[in-house]
Design a protein that fits this description.
single chain, alpha+beta, Beta-Lactamase, Helix Hairpins, Heat Shock Protein 90, 3 domains, 6-stranded mixed beta sheet, 5-stranded antiparallel beta sheet, 11 helices, 51% helix
Length: 538
């Protein structure tokens, strides 16, 4: 891969500031990938509803257990009731308390030695549990979770300290409550009336296992989310490296070309890339090379124009200066003839130069149409055969079958190709010479042949004659009669039509030159199907 030539640091910074977007593609890739992870992060908030369902299920289960224990106590003999409560407390993990109708506590499983849970003091918890509670609060706040009251064990333990027990004694039915323990773990309670409302059973439990389950699931989701974020960031950086960096290199190279450093900048072609970025790099590289060639051609053309204009201008100036000092009428007439000849030469040069400089722009704007080259060549040959003031030359034209030589192009420009080729052939042909024009069709192209009877083109000049201002003329011909742009204009027009031209010897071995023009063949019929003569001689 060819390196791109660096610019001064200040100029590079200026180019980067001018073309750097507000939000880079790298940041956008990161944003899109991380945005997708937001849905995974929503699992944290799903855990809140999961915890709520666990609490509701445990609250219902606690109420059922309390009802079963109350029924069992009611049906047990008087001496079996306290031992039964003790056994059920140990089995179920509940704290069981019985209050009489006056609200006094009669039985407490904790007092009987069955302490099934201990309310933790948050002030004594280690740092990891404190951080866990902070995260609990954060998730609950964002998820708009319900915030229950905190439970407080009453110093004077009566039924009045427990709203659910009061409701059961009042006969309003079974009731249960969810509260926070001091360490924000679920504290569940359920009350059931006993002995026809003469007592009430209060079952409480600190469901720390629910919090442990939720926190464990949250840790798993956090680990998955962390791994996904790391993978997403790495993939984003990989995409940025494989997409953004090559695009940035191409953009900076394009800026350098725009800043007028086309000759110093080699746009990276990225040959190892076989994707769209590689295609873009190679397209920009080809474009910059074409631009460089166009700039070089323009500068070379300008230099050639100045050189070609200097000779007639110098001759004209010398003739005009001589007129002011010479009084001999014969010499003055000769100087006036020279001046007039130089003016005509300048006019011819300026006309040809203007047309040569406009061809590329005109071809880029002109829509191509379907053209029958057989008919077009016939019209040009008829026009060339009736020109006055020139040496008599016969033009023989062999026309192909109608509609067989179809091309896409600009009819006016292709007519100019044929006119210039015939002008060139006429200028080299002897008096009463013959120019033969033929249009032939192949499977994929249309060929136009122009043969003359002149001296031919030397082999070492067959490429050079299509350059601007290059002309190989006979020694006896007056200097300056031709601008040297005719064949260059032909070559430029054909390049705009994806065609080409070359000079050859005549295949029959006779003296003269053959110019072979090749154009891509079109495959449909033209709109105008009028016919010309199969062969024309003028």
């Amino acid at each position: 891969m060819a390196p791109d030539i660096d610019l001064p640091r200040s100029e590079r910074r200026g180019a980067e500031r001018e073309w750097t977007p507000r939000i880079s593609v790298t940041r956008r890739i990161l944003a899109v990938n991380i945005f997708a992870l937001v849905f995974l992060a929503a699992g944290f908030f799903y855990l809140d509803s999961y915890r709520a369902r666990l609490i509701d299920g445990r609250l219902i289960a606690t109420g059922r257990e309390a009802a079963l224990i109350a029924a069992a106590v009611e049906s047990a003999p008087l001496g079996e009731r306290v031992p039964l409560l003790t056994r059920e407390a140990g089995t179920s993990g509940l704290r069981l308390r019985v209050y009489d109708a006056a609200g006094r506590k009669i039985v407490d499983s904790f007092a009987l030695g069955k302490r099934t849970y201990v309310l933790a003091d948050p002030a004594r918890d280690p740092i990891n549990l404190r951080l866990a509670r902070v995260l609990d609060r954060l998730v609950e706040t964002i998820a708009f979770a319900a915030k229950p009251d905190y439970v407080r064990e009453p110093r004077n333990d009566k039924a009045s300290a427990w709203p659910e027990a009061q409701a059961a004694l009042a006969g309003t039915g079974a009731s249960g409550l969810y509260r926070f323990a001091p360490d924000r773990t679920p504290f569940l309670s359920a009350a059931r009336p006993m002995f026809g409302g003469k007592a009430v059973l209060l079952a409480t439990v600190n469901a720390q296992d629910i919090t442990e389950v939720v926190r464990a699931e949250r840790l798993r989701i956090f680990l998955v989310l962390a791994a996904a974020i790391v993978a997403s960031v790495l993939l984003s950086l990989f995409l940025a490296r494989t997409i953004v960096l090559p695009l940035r290199r191409l953009a900076l190279a394009a800026v350098r070309v725009r800043l007028g450093r086309a000759r110093e900048v080699i746009v990276p072609r990225l040959p190892e890339r076989r994707d769209e970025i590689g295609m873009l790099a190679r397209a920009i590289s080809d474009m910059s090379q074409a631009l460089r060639q166009r700039i070089d051609a323009t500068e070379s053309f300008a230099a050639d124009v100045s050189h070609e204009l200097k000779n007639p201008i110098a001759s004209l100036r010398s003739a005009l200066e001589g007129l002011t000092h010479i009084h001999d009428e014969g010499l003055r007439k000769r100087l006036l003839d020279i001046a007039q000849d130089d003016v005509r030469r300048l006019d011819r040069l300026v006309t040809d130069i203007a047309e040569a400089s406009r061809i590329d722009a005109q071809l880029s704007r002109t829509p191509f149409e379907l053209i029958d080259m057989g008919r077009l060549a016939g019209r040009v040959v008829r026009g060339q055969s009736t020109r006055d003031g020139e040496a008599p030359v016969r033009i023989v034209y062999a026309r192909p079958a109608r509609g067989s030589a179809l091309v896409m192009g600009d009819a006016q420009k292709l007519s100019r190709v044929l006119e210039n080729l015939l002008d060139n052939a006429r200028s080299f042909s002897p008096v009463d010479g013959r120019i033969r024009v033929a249009v032939e069709t192949g499977r994929s192209d249309v060929t136009i042949l122009v043969d003359d009877e002149g001296p031919g083109v030397p082999e070492h000049e067959r490429e050079a004659i299509f350059r601007r201002f290059h002309s190989v003329r006979p020694a006896q011909e007056d200097f300056g009669r031709h601008s040297g742009l005719g064949l260059a204009i032909v070559s430029t027009i054909l390049e705009g039509h994806n065609g080409h031209i070359r000079a050859e010897n005549r295949p029959d071995g006779a003296a003269g030159a053959r110019f072979r023009v090749t154009l891509p063949r079109a495959g449909s019929e033209p709109d105008d199907t009028s016919d010309d003569d199969a062969e024309t001689e003028g």
